[in-house]
Design goal:
Elements lengths: L11 E3 L9 H13 L10 H21 L6 E6 L2 H11 L7 E5 L4 H14 L2 E5 L16 E6 L12 H10 L3 E5 L18 E5 L9 E6 L16 E4 L4 E3 H4 L15 H15 L3 H19 L4 E3 L7 E6 L4 H10 L2 E6 L4 H7 L5 E5 L6 H14 L1
Parallel strand pairs: 1-13, 3-4, 3-5, 5-6, 6-7
Antiparallel strand pairs: 2-8, 7-8, 9-10, 11-12, 12-14, 13-14
Helix pairs in contact: 1-7, 2-7, 3-4, 8-11
């Protein structure tokens, strides 16, 4: 069965780095919630609510297993997106325990702007490190008592934080913490986080074949440095005139409520659980076809005399500009042929504009929905335009 058979003939979607298409089983799981047991999780005792609670808990467990993180050390909270999760953590982090904030040059605005604000608000030094060309971070840096916030896969060209484990270990030895932006890694590069122990991982479900949603995977001991200031319904077990009792303090099993104020997106959470299950069922053949598709497209772009690629190697996400052609106009021309691609700076303004001095780019980002016919069409249309 084609789980993306709702696509119209000729549609070529190449914007998965922004948000992936949702396979039919994921869409169905969300519809099932709204049509069969639409209820408020953790607030009701009738059968619909009990079913909602069961499926939401399954999603929390699936995320930890997908990352291969220990339930003993980590918990999962849900939020809006990666940006919201990072800001929620930093806005409640006790800055007095740290001396500086560190990020890197190829970051999405999620870590880049939030670290800027955190440093300014707390009078801390902020350092912007230059990544190595392979995506790794130089480990000769001083990470003493640093709050390190960075991605483990770039939304520009997919380059990975290859030394993520060594980085985390060094930062921890020097009394710092590491918050990982995993938005671009969760769908196709989650293995980079296996057997690592970051203090928190934030990601967006909508880049993981799931509905629009955010998730935070947090080490339990990080809460020692968190002062709860963003609070509301769903987080408390008792309230008096001038005081309240947090659910996370009364019941250790409800530790995730520390970051979950108000009613949650129960249907979307259930959809995320289904998306992870769907990804884990992808066959070796599907993985190989996916790899062949993006490799072929990368090689085609690499061979173009007027095409300037940011990528150094094949990746599902690739960014480029064509000499003599405005990228936004190229995006419109592709769109007229039903090829959907992103143009601009992809929320990575500092690196692409100020560091690399590049013009606006075109980004092709592929997913499991892409087929060999899509690649052939893109090649044919690009040749015609260029």
């Amino acid at each position: 069965m084609n789980d993306f058979d709702y696509l119209e003939k000729g549609d070529v979607y190449l914007d998965a780095a922004c948000q992936s298409l949702r396979p039919t089983p994921v869409i169905k799981s969300v519809c099932d919630y709204y049509q069969k047991f639409n209820s408020c999780g953790e607030r009701v005792k009738y059968p619909w609510g009990i079913e909602t609670d069961r499926r939401v808990e399954e999603t929390r467990d699936r995320i930890l297993k997908y990352l291969k993180f220990s339930k003993r050390n980590y918990f999962v909270s849900f939020t809006l997106n990666t940006t919201y999760g990072i800001n929620l953590l930093l806005s409640q982090l006790d800055a007095s325990e740290f001396d500086c904030v560190i990020t890197t040059d190829i970051e999405h605005n999620s870590p880049f702007l939030s670290t800027m604000t955190f440093a300014r608000n707390n009078g801390l030094t902020r350092k912007v490190l230059t990544r190595n060309e392979d995506g790794s971070v130089p480990l000769d840096e001083d990470f003493s008592k640093a709050v390190v916030v960075l991605n483990c896969a770039s939304n520009i060209d997919g380059r990975k934080l290859l030394n993520v484990n060594d980085l985390i270990k060094k930062v921890h030895r020097q009394g710092g913490i590491v918050i990982i932006d995993a938005a671009q890694a969760m769908a196709h590069s989650v293995d980079i986080l296996h057997k690592t122990e970051p203090d928190a991982v934030c990601f967006s479900a909508h880049k993981l074949y799931a509905p629009s949603l955010g998730a935070m995977v947090v080490r339990k001991d990080l809460l020692e440095n968190i002062t709860t200031s963003f609070i509301g319904g769903g987080m408390v077990d008792d309230v008096d005139k001038d005081s309240y009792l947090l659910s996370s303090e009364k019941n250790p099993d409800h530790i995730y409520t520390k970051f979950e104020s108000g009613l949650q997106a129960w249907g979307e959470i259930i959809g995320l659980g289904e998306a992870i299950s769907w990804i884990e069922k992808r066959t070796r053949k599907e993985h190989k076809e996916f790899e062949k598709n993006y490799t072929e497209l990368f090689e085609f772009l690499s061979s173009g005399e007027k095409v300037h690629l940011v990528n150094r190697e094949a990746n599902p996400t690739m960014s480029f500009f064509v000499e003599g052609i405005d990228s936004h106009l190229l995006g419109e021309a592709l769109g007229a042929e039903k090829i959907m691609a992103r143009t601009g700076y992809f929320c990575a303004h500092y690196y692409l504009d100020k560091v690399r001095h590049l013009p606006p780019l075109v980004r092709f980002s592929l997913g499991y929905h892409n087929k060999p016919d899509d690649i052939e069409k893109v090649k044919k249309v690009m040749e015609k335009i260029i």
